[in-house]
Amino acid sequence: MRKLPTMLIGIAGFGITLNTTAQFRCMVMDGGAEAVDEHMAQHASAALRGQDITIPVVMHVIWHTAAENVPDAALVQQLEVLNQDLRRTNPDAVNTPAALLGIAAGSDFQFCFADLDPMGNPTNGITRTYTDTVMFMDTWLGNTHMFHEETGGRDPWDQHHYLNIYVVNRSYFLGTASQPESHGNAHDGVAIDYPEAVGATRTLTHEVGHYLGLDHVFGGTFGLQSCGNDGVDDTPLQTYHYDCPTYPFFSCGNTTIGDLTMNYMDYSYRGCKNMFTQGQVDRMNAHFMQYRASFLGVTGCSFVGTEELATTADGPMLVPNPANGTMQVWFPSRPSAATIRLLDAAGRLSLSQGVANMQAGATIDISPLHAGVYLVQVLDDGIVIGQERLVVH
User: Fold this and answer.
1) What architecture does CATH give domain 311-392?
2) How large is the angle between the packed helices 72-87 and 203-211, nearest 10 degrees?
3) What pLDDT score was predicted for residue 169?
4) What pLDDT, on the 0 to 100 scale, is given for residue 8?
5) Coil, strand, or helix at residue 355?
6) CATH number among 3.40.50.920, 1.10.1670.10, 3.40.390.10, 3.40.50.1110, domain 7-291
7) pTM
């Protein structure tokens, strides 16, 4: 891991000289995640609890030397570690201090290598691209060259349907990630330094935490007493850590549960990290429901919805949306009969109803549905001809 040299940077309009030999681990490409109301976060978690949320992954290995061409086996291990960490099935979960077991939590997110590319062709979910770029040079504004073929990288797959993870040779940062508010934009995804793709480094877990809406547990600021706010109720005010002090360690006036040095969103080294909190899981769920709902309907990694099933202006119309009790649905360009199908966040069938004439439309009773985000699909003879997202409140 590399050292960050002395730099002059501007933060919030002030010139700040940063003179450090600390390992600089991470950068969030588009700033901190937007605030999430605690009640909304808990409501989202309740709606998703017990429902697997599957996110297809494509890993783009951009290499110049043989060492940078990380083998498949190492990438498979990275995804295994990521899934264990997000679901709290990681073997080192036993190292979580007893005082924190009441807030330690796993999520229902699961990640798998995509088995279809955006054109519907079989894939193992790993691409490999030789580049003339010796090193992707990081700056305080980030580096997005790896996201573009013309600048030595590789164009991403549709970010509405894949988590794009780039494995590259970086100059300073061990990893960078976009926040949920950037869902689907040109640089939405995660990029890690290639040595971090070998072994249980926890760098990918940390960056995917950002991708799902988490800030650093110390709040995203720097200094010996950063004491920032990460927007999560069950994490204390604390500074950041590069080491792994014996628990409990207190900073920033925290006298309650101690600093969460074992949290994946701190800077502490890999052997220290072993947990997310329930508040962080709630926050990830809320951001997913609000920004990354295009992953809904995924079943395994053979998911419905690449090119032909993208939401379009010619798709079904839902009124009202959000809805509660009933909704009207019609498809102006489809005068024929069809079947309406609603899928929940795990891709499970929640409701199915026949409609005699889609152009005329129909009223659908959605009162039995729990609050959450659903995928409304229109089928003609069993073939999905259009879809739209519906929020039930």
Assistant:
1) Sandwich (2.60)
2) 60
3) 96
4) 27
5) strand
6) 3.40.390.10
7) 0.71
Which pLDDT score, from 0 to 100, does residue 148 have? 96
H or E element in which residue 80 lies: helix 72-87
207 catalytically annotated: yes
8 A C-beta contact, residue 170 and residue 135: yes
> Which one, of 343, 336, 316, 315, lies nearest residue 328 by Cα?
316
pLDDT value at position 141? 65
Question: Backbone dihedral region of 243: left (phi > 0), alpha (psi from -120 to 50 degrees) or beta?
Answer: beta
> Which residue in 181, 207, 307, 308 is the catalytic one?
207
What pLDDT does 309 receive? 34
pLDDT of residue 380: 84
Place of tokens 């949320």: 53
DSSP string for 270-336: GGG--BEEHHHHHHHHHHHHHH-GGGTT--TTS-S-SSTTS--TTS-EEEEEEEESEEEEE-TT--S
Q: Which residues of the chain have pLDDT under 70?
A: 1-25, 27, 29-51, 140-141, 221-225, 297-314, 345-347
- The 8-class DSSP code of residue 166 comes to E
Q: What are phi and psi of 246, to 5 degrees?
A: -60, 135
Side-chain-side CA neighbours of 27 within 13 Å: the count stands at 19
pLDDT at 280: 97
Single-letter residue type at 357: N
